[in-house]
Records
---
Amino acid sequence: MESKKPYSLKERLRGVKKSRWIRFAIVSLIFFFWVILMGNPWLLLLWPLLIDIYITQFIPWAWWKNRKGITRTVMAWVDAIVYALVLIYFIFAFIGQQYEIPSSSLEKSLLVGDRLWVDKTVYGARVPQTPIHFPLAQHTLPIVNTKSYIEKPQLPYHRMPGVRSIRRGDIVVFNYPQGDTVALKVQNPDYYQICAELRAKGVMDPKAHIQNNPEMFGELVWRPVDRRENYVKRTIGLPGECLSIKDDVIYIDGKAIAEPDNVQYNYIIPVNGPVPAGKWQELGVRAEDAQGPIRDEYNGFSFYDVPLTAAMKAELEKWPEVIGPLVRESKSGMLDLTGVFPAGADYGWTRPDMGEIWIPKRGSTLHLTPDNYALYERAIRTYEGNSLEMRDGKIYINGESSEYYTFKMDYYWMMGDNRDRSADSRYWGFVPEDHVVGSPVFIILSLDKERSLFDGKVRWNRVLRNPNPDKGKW
């Protein structure tokens, strides 16, 4: 005779095995600890779900296990995939995540094709501000090409306790600060660069121009902080410090700081003819950086414009193809070095000469003036969510006239080691703390996109290596 299933709460509790109670207690403790770290008591509303999964089982979670045939097979796969996605979601959100280096801005510390494991616990894991998202895509689902997230709800910024704070010299992965607005067909340069270029051409309303020309720019979309593009740079300036750059030398609070050995600068290299591609490759110069030679019709010589470390420069100067002294690109007069942060301001700054810039610190109060307004406008308005405007020489914050503002977050100044080919804080300013993702701890795999599988495509000497060998120099 078939036994009667326990339907009442009392009967269900009586039928729960001791081992299941123990598992439920362990899971509950972990859950409560997680809620405390998240700083969101509303999450306690999920605890009854755990009670039902482990104890009461009013919801038939495993109904499919009693079925036969295709239903059981399909649901077994669905069950496994859902569990895997939930596990990946929690690992990627609170522990760490894989990240690939797409550009050469940190060469030679990090190479294009390096795949890093980024530790999110070192500075404290950031609670997902956009909690409903597909864990394997940053902002766009492949193939279907749609958003990988739902914009609502948006949670306030909160970070779990970390091991330590960000230090100078740390390589940090963060969400691109100016990635809040994106023209989908033209993502590099970004929306704000496009607007600046349009204004320079006499377009009075760049945003309207972009929206009215979707065939050229694509759809204009807004992205939440944690769904913006990931960037990776080296920490140069810390909260509360004063930074300046003079002739490419960086000064913090008036003192010059050391450069890592891997810093690269671009040089103009006069040559008597083409240099074989293999020779550039042996030196460590990427093929896309060694295009040429370029013919200077005015001065009558051919040259390459190539990024070099000090060691690479010393080696290259011995080449028979080199017919003259190497000149720093920034001193050659061949490039326009303006267009740096803050956009549209007339400080007379260039890429190798900037400052003095005070880096905002949480709790510190700034005397805001018409002279420094352009430096801190975006931080106060966009990153910290205030209304800000200047009328008739007076500054209004949230509708009230005020010359002082106290910052809610810490900010950082980030730069690439490939100094003349890095889009970094020199162009878009400060990185707010709520944009910080984590720091790479080791290289998972490194693939050279310029080599074939049987010609050194896999850089085995970089696997499991420290991605920041110059950290001790700071």
Note: The longest strand covers residues 436-446.
---
Amino acid sequence: MGKKLTKRAVDYSKWYNELVVRADLAENSAVRGCMVIKPYGFAIWEKMQAELDRMFKETGHENAYFPLFVPKSLFEAEEKNAEGFAKECAVVTHYRLKNDAENKGKLIVDPNAKLEEELVVRPTSEAIIWNTYKGWIQSYRDLPLLINQWANVVRWEMRTRLFLRTAEFLWQEGHTAHATKEEAVAEAKQMQEVYANFAENFMAMPVVKGAKSESERFAGAEDTYTIEALMQDGKALQAGTSHFLGQNFAEAFDVKYTSKEGKQEYVWATSWGVSTRLIGGLIMTHSDDFGLVLPPKLAPIQVVIVPIYKGDEQLDAISERVDGFVKEFRKKGISVKFDKRDTFRPGAKFAEYELKGVPVRIAIGARDLENNTVEVARRDTLEKNSVSQDDVVSYIENLLEEIQENLFKKAIDYRKEHTTEVTTFDEFKDVIENKGGFVLAHWDGTEETEEKIKEITKATIRCIPNDADYEEGICVYSGNPSARKVLFAKAY
């Protein structure tokens, strides 16, 4: 399997980049800043997608699909949103290439094929969707409108890193319309809960739920609700956001409904999304110096079985026994792979599945057949046990649950150890620089203070936690009065 990974303690960034490529998750493409998601990485995304899609549908949402291209005039309609994304937009100006007469075989842009109106490649879909909703919404009977789409978006990032920040990425984006402000706020908060539930119960990644400060809000939102996770290098990851958009987009696109009383009123809006950056979060929350560590609920392969044999006769006997296990695992809904490739030795296979983070590995040889046992290795702790073949299916069913819980507990413990309350700016700087993690500190609520802290320490306000106590205090930087503590960290 090649040389060992760079250790996290030596160079966390290098470890991450090596792991993504070596574990066959993704690679850089011929397009600057864009990635190729390989089958194993895409299988993780499919598992995430399936669970999230189920959760969206359980909360009443339906899937639709909207165009990749947004006419520039529509994109400009909501000013804050347009300004917020303008620097990251890719724009289509022409629709045809033609042969270059002077350089045969070369193609050039046909100057006669200029578009009447330039098209923005969607960095987010509010504009095209709200222009569409104008035709869908006339009456209170048409509300609420609860739509989600699975799509790709383009944001022309200058500094990219596989999964965490790429010029093109995959995501889902929900866009909902409501009759009242209260309904829209409740929707935005509900989706924050859905994301938190997914992160904690499927990704085994603990998150802090909170609201963004005004300067960190989504462009065009009145409130942004976020879930913030802590990675093993002490940096925060914004893992999902949900936005209360007020009536900004309804006013920009003239989306009104007739109320029960017969009045014309603007609708209230939300949007919310998570992306393939969740795979980056999954990697950085759990993985170790040996490779990926995947929570069982999202692992493409939950159990791998490796035979140890000499000659076809032994392999046939082992295969016959393993076929029974495989059927039992599949009946229980456990994904299992029996790797009987003869092109790799068992040790190489062990290293491969360790690198790929398969939660449970079973090894079975001729002696195991005689003793009615198998060797079971768990990826999270690297512990091995000899287990009776009669009990192996129920043992592993329980073990998968135990691994899922253990990964969450380990991540929670790390977050507790790396969440520090401070009262002075010297303490603040020391923790950010030397310990890392989340810092809870009083903030006076001004953008000026927020910007100064960021300038000096590179730490940003990750969120105002939902469960923050409203306790009077003194701002950690300015010394001015503060109503509550907020969560700071350096972030991806």
Note: The first strand starts at residue 26 and ends at 28.
---
Amino acid sequence: MPEPVAASGTVRADRKVADPSEVVKPVPEDRSSRRRVLLIVSGGIAAYKTPELVRALIAGGCTVQVVMTPAARAFVSELALATVSTRPVRSSLLDPVEEGRVGHIELADWPELVLVAPATADLMARAAAGLADDLAACCLLATRAPVLWAPAMNTNMWRHPATRQNLATLRARGAEFVGPDRGELACGWIGEGRMIDPPVIVEAVRALLASGAKNMSEGTGTWSGRRVLISAGPTRTYIDPVRFISNASTGAMGFALAAAARALGAEVTLVAGPVELPTPPGVRRIDVETAAQMHAALEQALAEAPVDLVAMVAAVSDLEVDGVPQKLEKAALLPALAGLNWRRGVDILASLTARHGAGTKRPFFLGFAAQTVEDGPDIEGELLGLGAAKLASKRVDAIFVNRVGVPGLGFASPTNAGYLLLRAPGTSPATVVPSGPPVAKEQLAGWLLAELAPRLGRADA
């Protein structure tokens, strides 16, 4: 009797042939409900992660067709990707078998979503220019499906004005972006440019497919056509190269607001301090560390294009100091602290409102104020008094004030609650809108945007 053959085609000598009456035929997989994703892999070192990405997409309910650029083949093999995707990989624009039926157009018409991961600076530039010099670029030019880019490149390449312009061009045409992340790069640098991890990319794909990515790209949300600029997280004041002063902000509220605004159709730029949070799908993220860097990034974003809403959610460090260039030894630390030139930090929000708060096309400014109020008979009154003072001193249009240091509110808590104070005309007292009991920060973000939407002008009006 011949040896039984395993499904892989290898000979197995360690199992018996089953009685035909005991064989249970496998049930064919129902692929009709699977979402169709065209994965374009371009030539960056992060391409080595794409087999893992394909597996995760399939586990997440997608059918994946892979297209590779010629350069991508230097970093990952077609065989590996064909094996994990269970579909032949396409890489040649001039394939006589496929192009007999205009295969590149078939590929462009097939997917519900096009994912580019890793997305190199070169491919972004070619797509922004509308080139069609290889199969990947042809598919990007011909597809009518939404496109999600997962950038991966050196920090200087990511920050280069040409890349920023290409990013803006692609975003203006409806493209979505996830990442890049901040971390150690293959070149040895540490900074922005690392491809976001595959599980985060998969979540972005699933979120866009579930919410109707095409509708988002076409701008059908209640905030469609609006531009939103948000700061989030803490900043750091460095004393020496290894020591800094910061605070307990996790960035969760700012990131929740960015995700909610993007889901409602807004074009969102998020200036983030040093936090360990994934970039919300479709949000442009700028990573900073210090207050000066955050201030500069916000000014740059306001200079690039009109903005409808500026939400200053970040907890900026209140102190600045002329730090020392060498690490202070433990014995010298305390004496050195007293001799350093300490001073009050720049009030970024007050500076922005002073510079950009006039004119008919000015942004609507929303501030956030985390306050410690002791338990007592008039917690609400004290909190509102502090909020009203901040509303006046920072010259903002609205401020959200909440307590910190109590369970369920403020920093490092998944929930929050407080009061939205809205500036009234002239000398009239502010309008106060309570948010209600503590809710998830994602829910609070949606409530805030719903409250603010009818009060905003249009930056491009």
Note: The radius of gyration is 26 Å.
---
Amino acid sequence: MSLLEIRNVSYTYQSQYQKTEALKNVSLVFEPGTVYAVTGKSGSGKTTLLSLMAGLDLPGSGEVLCEGESTAKMDLQKYRREKAAVIYQSFRLLPLLTAAENIMFPMELNGMNAKDARKAALKLMRRVALSKEYADRYPTMLSGGEQQRVAIARALAMNTKILLADEPTGNLDSANSENIMNILVNLAHEEGYCVIIVTHDSSIAAASDCVIRMNDGEVVS
């Protein structure tokens, strides 16, 4: 059984003036231990696909299956907490919380006490190559690359096995982009995560195990 499967999925945006077919009968299979890059020009359906895999919406037709179960039959909030974590281009760190507190936040939401959550957060920071000295710094005190590492650690704190990354290097220079990609590749290859990256960056695609190219809502290769 695959970890995540997209089965004959279509999705249409309907506005007052027009209808847009964002996805057209898309089928894909994603396995643990693998880095996938989803590429294509703007409007090709990449972001819509990511939002469906993240449980932010349901397909118009077809199914998104996680470990064989359709997201349509799940509590989507629980799915997002327990199955699929998202890493954003803009980091989306909470500005009034320190780096450690940002990482602690999902653990505390799930009932972990603050002492244990901080201990776990410091361990997660080490996994993304951030030393303890960064723990009590606020996001504005961190570089873009450091903020993205905190965002990855926060995603890991959710203890999911699916990591969905939306242009995770889009706001970073080439050196930091390479560092972030190395972290994501290691998480897949060494710890068994299924990492799915939506990207325009050809170097990210080149470093991935599998490249999925989309055009006009369809998978073309």
Note: The two ends are 23 Å apart (CA to CA).
